[in-house]
Amino acid sequence: MSEKTANPAPLGLLGFGVTTVLLNYVHNFRLMQIDAVILGMGIFYGGLAQIIAGVLEYRRGNTFGTTAFTSYGLFWLSFVALNWLGTSQVARYGVWPFSYPYNITPWLAGNEAFAAYFFMWGLFTLMMFFGTIKKNRALQFVFASLAVLFFLLAAREGLVASTFLVANSAAWNLFTQVIGVEGIICGLSAVYLAIAEVLNETYGKTVLPICPVT
Q1: Distance of CA 181 to the CA centre of its chain
Q2: Other Cβ atoms closer than 10 A to 204
Q3: How many Cβ atoms from other residues are within 10 Å of residue 164's Cβ?
Q4: What is the distance between the alpha carbons of residues 91 and 56, in angstroms, rounded to a whole number?
Q5: SS (H, E, C) 46-111
Q6: Engineered SS bond to 118: which of 59, 142, 143, 154, CB 3.0-4.6 Å?
Q7: Helix, coil or strand: residue 116
Q8: Residue 88 has what pLDDT?
Q9: Is residue 211 part of a domain?
Q10: C-alpha to C-alpha distance for 190 and 196, rounded to whole angstroms
Q11: CA angle at 41 for the pair 39 and 42, rounded to the nearest 5°
Q12: Are residues 143 and 100 in contact, defined by beta-carbon separation less than 8 angstroms?
């Protein structure tokens, strides 16, 4: 007798969506520092929840879901590592693996490195977008808006690295806030899709439309 398995996609989408909204609202739109709330969510909900969803998608034989959720889960863990574990404050207190002497500041990624980092994630997301063509419009919007978000972040870091844009200037602040709005929309679209899948399955009918491709 076969046993029905639950759909892990809403878990992964919520892990991605909620964390993305928080990051873009606090760090980009409000121009505030990345704090413990963002880093904690990045480790557990944005990171581990998506990796768990990816593993469960593997058991369901879903290659697309496995690749997407595990990749973005690991993205969030790498993002936390870049913004927390590599900082001099953490290193000063001897947190493994960055246990530097007190008078040494560890190397931190610069704007050019972050530009390449975000560009490659944007390229990956763009390629994954083509895997959504036969799924549904809601998922297509999530991936399209995420690709735009990554490319905007890459552009900002690249412009700062090339000195065409001065960090913390009025132009930089405006560009960053535009990125924040786009990121919030992207995150909310993932949250919408997750809740739609939960409610549609629960009620056995279309409660929130996701526009499947026919």
Answers
A1: 14
A2: 7
A3: 9
A4: 35
A5: HHHHHHHHHHHHHHCCCHHHHHHHHHHHHHHHHHHHHHHHCCHHHHHCCCCCCCCCCCCCCCCCCH
A6: 154
A7: helix
A8: 54
A9: no
A10: 10
A11: 60
A12: no
Residue 14, domain extent: 9-203
Is the model's pLDDT at 213 over the cut of 70?
yes
The answer as to whether 4 is a domain residue is: no
Q: How many CB atoms lie within 10 A of CB 165?
A: 17
- Coil, strand, or helix at residue 27? helix
Question: What is the chain's length?
Answer: 214
pLDDT at residue number 92: 52
* Domain membership flag for residue 3: no
Distance (Å, rounded) from C-alpha 121 to C-alpha 150? 6
Determine the Cα–Cα distance for residues 125 and 121; give it in Å rounded to an integer: 6
**What is residue 136's three-state secondary structure?**
strand
pTM of the model: 0.91
189 within some domain? yes
pLDDT digits (tens, 9 = 90+) for 143-202: 999 999 999 999 999 999 999 999 889 999 999 999 999 999 999 999 999 999 999 999
Nearest Cα residue to 49 out of 14, 75, 79, 98: 14
- Counting the structural domains of the chain, the total is 1
Confidence bin at 33 (pLDDT 50/70/90): confident
pLDDT in tens, 97-110: 444 444 444 445 67
